[in-house]
């Protein structure tokens, strides 16, 4: 354990505090100890020791986020109650001394953090991929207004002599499930801006553009929540879009496409 010899006393104490939380871990081999320390460091757990943070809750949350188990990606749909937790999560929770209720809270917390980071990464890639395709295909001006401000209520502006389109872009890697988040500003922009269109972009796992489709305004209007009183107002909502709802292509920009434009934009490739 050469790395341990090089650590300051405070570092050794941190590692031992995490790795000896349970007496069952006291007889692990140097190789296991080294692997455990590497994982603890990479997940940021080492920095939490000594702070007002529960070690067992932090370890369980990190383990769920880093596990790569198939169910975690769709945990928001698959797990709605503690008794719906998969057996592997329950075993990990029991090992750490967590109740199913505590484990359920930590799974939701871990999923929320991972989902937020993933949506940001994939969303940016989708906007840039569509922007590049539009620049090659549209006869007119194409601008990425979201790069300047998020106050427009849409991401991409396309304009030609007689037509214009304001595209709000939502991106996914998934097949068979489309979940989008829409802000109040985006929704209200849709209501008063006839050029506004919600465009869904599907990327391959290596972030290459695969297909695009538009979600009809009428469908969006029928799904968003209503403000029940003047004292309550929704600011953001999640929409789970059924596979039959998106219309392949981007209808609003078809009049602006060059003859050599990608067939993806014309809707010739199914979403």
DSSP strand content: 15-25%
Morphology call = elongated
Radius of gyration: 24 Å
What's the CATH C level of the largest domain?
Answer: Alpha Beta
How many individual β-strands?
8
- Overall structural class, as computed from helix and strand content, comes to alpha+beta
Task: Give me the strand/helix succession.
Answer: HHHHHHHEEEEHEEHEEH
| Structural domain tally | 2
Describe what you observe in this structure.
It is a single chain. This protein is of the alpha+beta class and 271 residues long. Helix content is 42%, strand content 17%. It folds into two domains: 113 residues, no CATH class; 130 residues, Trna Endonuclease, Chain: A, domain 1, CATH 3.40.1350. A six-stranded mixed beta sheet has the order 1-2-3-5-6-8. It has a two-stranded antiparallel sheet with strand order 4-7. Strand 2 and strand 3 form a beta hairpin. Helix 4 runs antiparallel to helix 6 and helix 4 crosses helix 7. The longest helix is centred in the middle third of the chain and has 38 residues. The termini are far apart. 27% of the residues are buried. The N terminus is likely disordered.
């Amino acid at each position: 354990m050469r790395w341990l010899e090089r650590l300051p006393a405070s570092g050794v104490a941190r590692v031992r505090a995490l790795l000896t939380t349970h007496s069952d871990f006291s007889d692990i081999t140097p190789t296991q100890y080294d692997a455990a320390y590497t994982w603890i460091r990479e997940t940021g757990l080492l920095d939490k020791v000594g702070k007002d943070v529960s070690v067992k809750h932090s370890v369980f949350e990190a383990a769920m986020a880093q596990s790569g188990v198939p169910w975690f990606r769709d945990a928001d749909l698959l797990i709605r109650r503690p008794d719906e937790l998969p057996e592997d999560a329950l075993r990990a929770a029991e090992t750490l001394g967590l109740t199913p209720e505590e484990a359920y809270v930590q799974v939701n917390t871990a999923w929320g953090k991972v989902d937020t980071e993933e949506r940001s990464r994939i969303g940016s890639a989708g906007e840039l991929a569509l922007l590049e395709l539009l620049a090659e295909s549209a006869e007119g001006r194409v601008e990425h207004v979201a790069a300047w401000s998020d106050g427009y209520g849409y991401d991409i502006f396309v304009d030609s002599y007689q037509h214009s389109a304001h595209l709000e872009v939502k991106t996914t890697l998934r097949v068979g499930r489309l979940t989008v988040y829409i802000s109040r500003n985006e929704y209200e922009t849709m209501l008063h801006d006839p050029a506004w269109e919600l465009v869904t972009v599907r990327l391959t796992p290596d972030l290459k553009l695969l297909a695009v489709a538009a979600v009809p305004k009428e469908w969006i209007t029928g799904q968003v929540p209503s403000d029940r009183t003047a004292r309550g107002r929704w600011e953001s909502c999640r929409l789970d879009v059924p596979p039959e709802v998106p219309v392949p292509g981007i209808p609003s920009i078809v009049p602006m496409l060059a003859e050599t434009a990608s067939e993806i934009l014309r809707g010739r490739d199914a979403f």
